[in-house]
Each structure stands twice: as structure tokens, then as C-alpha cells.
Amino acid sequence: MTGGAESTPRNAATDGRAGDPVAEPAGVPAAGSAPFLGVEDLVVEYPTAQGPFRAVDRVSFRLPRGGSLAVVGESGCGKSTLARALVRLLKPTSGRIVLDGTDIATLPERRLRPLRRRVQMVFQDPYGSLDPHLTAQQIVAEPLRLSGTGDRAERARRAAELLDRVGLPSSALHRRPPEFSGGQRQRIGIARALASRPDVLVCDEATSALDVSVQAQVLDLLRELQAETGIAYLFIAHNLGVVREISAEVVVMHAGRVVETGPTAAVLAAPAEPYTRALRRAALDPTAIRGVKPRHLLAATAPEGTRT
Ligand SMILES: Nc1ncnc2c1ncn2[C@@H]1O[C@H](COP(=O)(O)OP(=O)(O)O)[C@@H](O)[C@H]1O
Ligand SMILES: [Mg+2]
Predict the structure, then answer these.
(1) Whose CA is nearest to atom 16 of ligand 1?
(2) pLDDT for position 284
(3) What pLDDT score does 175 carry?
(4) 3-state secondary structure of 103
């Protein structure tokens, strides 16, 4: 399938939940409003000895202000590459990333800098993504220090507020990452990502490394934060079950491409693509939750064509 996220709209307009501020269907902007984050024909290639390897292949989707969109697909399908391009840790090869009217895909660093705070990322690995030498309070204050926000005391106060908000006790302020559990570390990562008051949080497998019960607590926290702040989420996972918990809309990726998109409930109930059906079967497999990749399920269903 070609054409990306916009070519197969399901009944997204009927999927909203009354009274819920986050119910606006992602992928379909509210009448009269432009999407807050619009990704169009995004291509990211890595240079390799065999030539460019296309990890993200003409991906398109839209995320409205305050909305949620999940991106699912098996390991290696290009999710983290997409995430890194969106926060501009990587420069895309081509395509557009339109953030509130400005295309940030190719913006030079000098012009990108004031926009960087608006899209933040929570990483998968709660062990590797936090500096083990800094205290929790220093970790959360660091983005504010780097952007020259406030004075030292103000930054420390804001970091303490954020750590409290994500559910850590005040005794956590001066402890370092090795002293925390995986779930607590992920809460610190969320607090750090929120420090600069972003409009969009890209959660790249943010709960994948956590036990199921801890995963549920972190998902609850993310939902509460969204209700409070109106932040938009791009929620990346390899597990469809998790996606159901956080996002009304889903984009399914395979081999760098979007193969299916629509309301999560509809995609789960009646997946149109063979690849999505295989992912769905995998979601019912408890081993999939712990990150075992069900490649054997997918071998017979991969779309035709080689990746350029
Ligand atoms: N720096 C790199 N150089 C070359 N290939 C890469 C690089 N990083 C990732 N890839 C390849 O790009 C593809 C997508 O990787 P990634 O975005 O990490 O997928 P996912 O997050 O879905 O597991 C994989 O085939 C991976 O091997
Ligand atoms: Mg990844």
C-alpha cells in the first residue's frame, strides 16, 4: 500500500468520546484547524556500505493539538528512526514535519533551537537514558539549565514540582538513577521531558521495558498528564495491547512504511492488512508483552517489494 496515513481513513469522526478533552481523533484535524504536527512523505535513509538504507519510507500522518496517535510495528520497522527524526535528533532525507505551521524537517540548527523544546521524547530504556551520576532533581532541571530558563533555585523548584507530579516522593530528589526501579526511572524520564512544557511528547516504547503492572501505572500517569495539560502524544509501541490503552488512533508501520491507519478499536477488531492481523495475534500472545518479537508470525505476510 502506498499513500500513507491519509489514504485509508476509517470512521474516525464517529470515534470521539463525549466530554473527553483528548477524544479528538488523531489523523483527522478538527474542522477548520490545521493539524498541530503534520508529517508528510517523510523519508529517512541511513548511509551504509551497500548504499542508502531507507528506514522510514514516505510516512505521513497528522496529530492534532492535544490529541494522541499511536505508531505500532515490529522491531526494526523504523519506529525509533521516525521518533528521532520528529525531535530532530536525525535530519530527514526528504519530506516535511510541519509543527504548528513551520516545517522543521530541514530547518538549520539556529532556527530549530527555539522550537526544540516544543517536541520532547521519552526513551525506551529507563536504565540507559538517564545520566547515572546526576540526582533525579538535576536530571529534570537539566533541559532548563541548557536552555537558560530561570535561575538555579527556580529550576530546582520546578524539578521538585515535576518529580512530585509524576509520583515520586520528596526523598527521591537527591537520589541517583541506579537507586530507582525501572518504573521510577521512567517517571523521571517523563518529568524531564515535561520540564520545558512541550506541546508534543514522543514516547518511544516508553513502557515496553516495564512489568505489566508498572506499565499500567505509567500509562495512567500519561493519561492524567494529558487531561491536565492538553499535551499531544505520539505513542510508539510494538505491542497493540498497550496502544489500545493510550490512543484512539493508530498507524501501523511495516518495513518503514505505513500499511494501515484508523481508530485503534476498528483496526484491532477488523485489521484490513495481513501484517496488522499478525501483529494482533501477537498482541494476544503474552510473550509479546515482554518484547519477544513474533517474526515467525510475520514471515508469510510481509508485503511484496524490497526496501530501497
Ligand atoms: N544508524 C543506523 N545505520 C544503519 N541502519 C540503521 C541505523 N539505525 C537503525 N537502522 C536500521 O533501520 C531500521 C529501523 O530501525 P529502528 O528505527 O530502530 O526500528 P524500530 O524502532 O522500529 O525497532 C532497522 O532495520 C535498523 O537496523
Ligand atoms: Mg525502536
Answers:
(1) 78
(2) 66
(3) 97
(4) strand
Please work out whether the CB of residue 75 comes within 6 Å of at least one atom of ligand 1: yes
Query: Which residue's CA is the nearest one to ligand 1's atom 18?
Result: 80
- Ligand nearest to the Cα of 75, by number: 1
Q: How far is the CA of 78 from the centre of ligand 1 (A)?
A: 6
Assign residue 248 a region (left: φ > 0; alpha: ψ between -120 and 50; beta: otherwise): alpha
| Mean pLDDT over each residue of the chain, to the nearest integer | 83
If DSSP codes are grouped into helix, strand and coil, which group holds residue 106?
coil
The torsion of the CA quartet 162, 167, 170, 174, rounded to 10 degrees, works out to -70
Q: Report, as an integer, the average pLDDT of 297-301.
A: 39
For residue 205, which atom of ligand 1 is closest to its CA?
21
55 close to ligand 1 (CB < 6 Angstrom):
yes
Q: Is 127 in the pocket of ligand 1 (CB under 6 A)?
A: no
More reliable by pLDDT, 292 or 135: 135
Q: Please give the distance of CA 144 from its chain centroid, rounded to a whole number.
A: 22
pLDDT in tens, 232-265: 999 999 888 788 888 989 999 999 999 999 999 9
**pLDDT score of 244:** 86
> Residue 25: what residue type?
P
Backbone angles phi, psi at 70, to 5 degrees: -100, 145
Rounded to the nearest angstrom, the distance between the alpha carbon of 81 and the centre of ligand 2 is: 7
Task: Name the band, by pLDDT with cuts 50, 70 and 90, for residue 152.
Answer: very high
Tens-place pLDDT, residues 155-182: 999 999 999 999 999 999 999 999 999 9
Centre of ligand 2 from the C-alpha of residue 76, in Å: 7
Task: Kindly report the protein residue whose alpha carbon is nearest to atom 12 of ligand 1.
Answer: 55
**Coil/strand/helix, residue 299:** coil
- C-alpha cell recorded at residue 274: 495481513
